[in-house]
Amino acid sequence: MFLVTGATGGIGRRVVRLLRERDEQVRAFVRLTSRYGELEHRGANIFIGDLRQEKDIEKACQGVQYIISAHGSDGDALSLDYRANIELIDQAKAHGVQHFVFISVLGADRGYEDAPVFKAKRAVERYLETSGLNYTILRPAGLASNLLSLAERFRETGVYLLIGDPKNRTSIVSTDDLARIVVDSVTVEAARNRILPVGGPEILSREDIPKIFSHIFNKEPIVINSPLFAVDALRGALGFFNPQAQKSLGTFRTLLANEFFCTHEEVAQLESIFNFEMETLESFLRRYLAV
Ligand SMILES: NC(=O)c1ccc[n+]([C@@H]2O[C@H](COP(=O)([O-])OP(=O)(O)OC[C@H]3O[C@@H](n4cnc5c(N)ncnc54)[C@H](OP(=O)(O)O)[C@@H]3O)[C@@H](O)[C@H]2O)c1
After folding, report:
1. Which residues pair with 260 in a beta bridge?
2. Which of 33, 59, 71, 258 most suits a substitution to test ligand 1, by most atoms within 8 Å of the C-beta?
């Protein structure tokens, strides 16, 4: 039995689909308010709970052999990125789980002080590494599925909002490729007890993204390039009445201000470990947007 947290998210949903296609037993950890109908339809066992509640985590871990931690932080990195994962690891140890897959983030080890999600991920990585469990830690770059709604907007308007330096490099990864890597991590020997950066096959500049949209939709892009200090101004203003949101914006700013890409060697290593060719951003978008 696989326990998948974040089962309704961009990665988790695809992980559950893939596991069910392979006829694996899946317990999908979802909230009552989550959109989990599709998972149920595919034969996943639905566990309703909240990852902020230790007792829910304890219950969800009963009788599972594999845990895939793929939930997001919902603006609360301390409770969800940190505490919930520590509790999942403790429960995995208590229940003799065979393999734990943790979705971290590219750059988790760079020591970004102002980014609670990155700090929490690094602390969890360390905890997992010394837990005695078999593990795989995956550090993805940006997910291609995040761009689908932006691509849809571009299709209608031709507009693309680019915040920060257009030359910053990124290697957007196909969310389907990532899901496959997540699932295969529990069986592929070379992925055991490893930390693996996960990016797509191309190193793109952020300004390449509207160019790819333009190519797909055959439409001239109108790129609005907003400087990073617009985010800083918003953060400053938020500090007066919503300090929590101000902290979350720290992670957002870190993502915008820095480069997140994998080297060609890292991608070649991934392709060799998991024995398949990673798809490009354009290929992913064309499949989903039917163009
Ligand atoms: N997106 C990226 O570009 C990217 C890049 C690198 C790493 N990552 C990491 O990959 C992981 C998954 O990202 P994603 O983009 O697939 O996530 P996502 O689409 O934002 O989904 C987040 C998931 O977490 C669940 N969740 C949030 N709070 C919860 C709670 N209190 N109890 C139970 N479930 C809760 C959500 O459930 P609901 O459906 O109920 O909201 C949803 O299923 C995250 O850890 C993220 O940091 C993401």
Report:
1. 170
2. 71
